[in-house]
Amino acid sequence: MMSCVRGFLPACGCALLAACAIGPDYKRPSVDVATGFKEVDGWKPTEPADALSRGPWWHIFNDDVLNGLEDQIDISNQNIKATAAAVEQAQALVTEAQAGYWPTLSVSAGRTHERRFAARPQNSNSAGASVSWPLDIWGTVRRSVESSKASEQSNEATLASARLSAQAELALDYFQLRGQDQLQILLDDIVKADELALKITENRYRVGVAARADVVTAETQLLSAQTQQINVAVQRGMLEHAIAVLVGQQPAAFTVTPSALRTDVPTIPAGVPSDLLERRPDIAEAERTVAAANAQIGVSKGAYFPSLSLSGAVDYAAGGAISQLFRVANQTWSVGPNLNQILFAGGLHRAEVAAARAGWEISVDNYRQTVLEGFQQVEDQLVTLRVLEQQSIVEDKLVQAAREAERLTLNQYKAGTVPYSSVISAQTTRLQSEQSALTVFVDRLTASVTLIEALGGGWNASQLQPPPPASTSTSAPAAPLPATSVRVPPPLQPPPAQQILPRAPVPENQP
Fold this sequence. Notes:
Radius of gyration: 36 Å
Low-confidence stretches: 1-11, 13-18, 46-53, 467-511
Number of strands: 6
Order of helices and strands: HEHHHEEHHHHEEHHE
Strand order of the largest sheet: 2-3-4-5
Mean pLDDT: 80
CATH architecture of the largest domain: Up-down Bundle
CATH superfamily of the largest domain: Outer membrane efflux proteins (OEP)
CATH class of the largest domain: Mainly Alpha
Shape: elongated
Strand content: 5-15%
Largest sheet: 4 strands, antiparallel
Structural class: alpha+beta
């Protein structure tokens, strides 16, 4: 027996060394990638800031309050915590799959008390150990581990995608809130102007050069502005509550101090479409899902082949005292290979392989759809930024003209050359133009944040641990994200200057 075992073990070792994993080797699905973004034409970033650090992307907005809020996302956001737990679960599943490489060792012990009719009671003792080692000749375990690792990387990319989404949503809500703060400043200014107009009208009425109707109209205009002034608090409160939930705090205990809106719109070059294959975590998530599905095809094909394992056991059994159990005379042992082949399963294995292939095709289609949607999102934000930038120039001129028209009309009313209805019309035009300019500016900030999110927020697929195999990546390393500043209308007040914090360079992408 021992001589057979000695001859069999080297043969199994040679078979394992020569074996290759069954099933298709993974290759990243091909996608059609354009050489450049269409909507980038006509929109050129100005004042390039090549010295911008590779720190967190929100630092390009140079806002300490935003920086502090964003830093709380990883610590307190419950959705990110749940996604991080899913990553830990996937890591445990990798370890579980890797356990298939190793033998299983078990031990047993028992003692029974037996009594038969008209016979003396007897004690029976037993103890033993056994080992079983399934040999991964066909690479089924290796494909299973490959699938688990790809799923783990997919979960890591899901975590990065959830983190980026929460960070972008926080920045969007924050700039919307600052827009409400700026609207409050604007309406406060409008109310002061309407109060002054009402005072002038009352003085003219007292001296008999204005009608009572002018006073009532001025009061109506003031009350209308005050109503809008008070109503701003509703939207601002809802945005503040949303930010509180994003950073994991109770809305009742969370406050963002009002402040003026920034005066510039940081933007980043879009690069080339192929960069998105490495920059966007949702694309990496979809690609790693394809890799996991590809490995499952090999796992399913393994059922067609015989399974081979080595097993051994040693047992002791005897009656009487336990101290007499471990004697050579009480010992039995066995060792040898076990070969098992399913001859008929009613088409089960064929169906499993077909299901695995269909799952792979689904994941490939989802991956390509995710890439297309990524291209669309970038194009959408590029055209939005380009058009809004052009619109902001016109809005700036409109605001200046409306202010001047209001001033001239009020002077003409003081001189008695125009009715008060002309003043009301000029004031209404000025308010509408100011609000429109503010809306366009906030929309530009929103589009800038959304473009950064669409470009992956500086994330890179090389950050997945462990890195993907060399055959799964074909794109060039993604370039850092420099920022630019674009001039905006002068009425907005700038926040205090802040320093952009650097971080360590992002590692180069794996080929």
